[in-house]
Design brief:
single chain; 205 residues; alpha+beta; 4-stranded mixed β-sheet; 3-stranded antiparallel β-sheet; flat
Length: 205
């Protein structure tokens, strides 16, 4: 197989914190920092911010994204591309979890995570023997779960994208093919050897 196209569709304008059930049943300000955070994680986070003295401690934000019935959209995308003449294998994937690490803005943390120190360590083999176990011991991680959901319906989102789908992937209104990874929803299609379709100069070797 050779990759014939790859594109990502933007969902960022419709990403909201919390869950659809929360937004409909609770009178909560969507801009509140508590929205979407598990209650027990929120308590641990508050304790961490108020009492933790380890400058190398890390907060790992686990962003869970839910989009109800997105599989239906994936099926529509595959069907539209095949109807346009593409005969290869098509994969559509929706990223449902992202992890972002947050470091303390402290002088020691900035130094230990900085590029300058790592360049110096690269010049010294013995330096890594001290750095790696030290960071492993000191860099404690506090996981925090954050719920998000896509607020736009499948039918409404389909109306924005269906006319851009083609046998060559996805084309924007200005005629340029979109290949930038910018959202949780991605689609890519490795063409069969029979089709011989390539993109971006990649021959699959």
């Amino acid at each position: 197989y050779t990759m014939s196209f790859s594109f990502a569709l933007d969902l960022l304008p419709w990403i909201a914190r919390g869950s659809p059930r929360q937004s409909s049943n609770e009178e909560t300000d969507g801009s509140s920092p508590e929205v979407g955070v598990e209650r027990e994680d929120l308590e641990r986070l508050r304790h961490f911010l108020a009492n933790d003295t380890n400058d190398l401690a890390i907060i790992a934000l686990h962003k869970h994204i839910r989009w109800e019935n997105w599989e239906e959209l994936a099926m529509n995308i595959k069907h539209q591309i095949r109807q346009s003449g593409f005969q290869g294998v098509i994969h559509v994937d929706c990223t449902q979890e992202e992890v972002m690490s947050v470091y303390k803005n402290a002088q020691w943390a900035n130094f230990m995570h900085g590029k300058t120190l790592k360049v110096l360590l690269a010049l010294s083999v013995l330096g890594w023997l001290v750095y790696v176990p030290y960071m492993w011991l000191r860099c404690t991680v506090l996981p925090v779960r954050c719920a998000h959901y896509v607020s736009i319906s499948i039918d409404e989102y389909w109306s924005y994208i269906f006319d851009g789908l083609s046998a060559n992937g996805f084309h924007t209104r200005d005629g340029l093919q979109s290949s930038e990874r910018s959202s949780p929803l991605e689609a890519f299609g490795p063409a069969s050897e029979r089709s011989g379709i390539e993109s971006g100069g990649d021959d699959g070797d």
